[in-house]
């Protein structure tokens, strides 16, 4: 499969479509637009002109980056798209760091997707250096 990855071109429509395809619902458009605007960088994987996968990176540009909302369209899963996107994001982060710097690249796996991240070389929490990851949804 031949695809390309672009930075900061992800729009709310494609985000909502992919988010919904993951079974996570359809978030409010304004909420999505705010989230995209305030992300460190967004990634879109394109097959021709169609966005088939996406991810958002949030972080401080130095010691901490967090992978958010990595989604591959169901019909494109199992084709190496997700793995290629993760590798691209890791290279992007390396490019943001100065020589000798290091950072934590963290994520929260979606349910039943742990094996994918383990295959990509990530450690599950807790492990010898950290405790559990936690999530809390805050609503207004």
From TrEMBL:
Keywords: Acyltransferase, Transferase. Residues 3-140 form the N-acetyltransferase domain. It comes from the Bacteria. GO terms for cellular component: cytoplasm. The keyword Chaperone does not apply. This is N-acetyltransferase domain-containing protein. GO terms for molecular function: N-acetyltransferase activity. Pfam families: Acetyltransf_7 (PF13508).
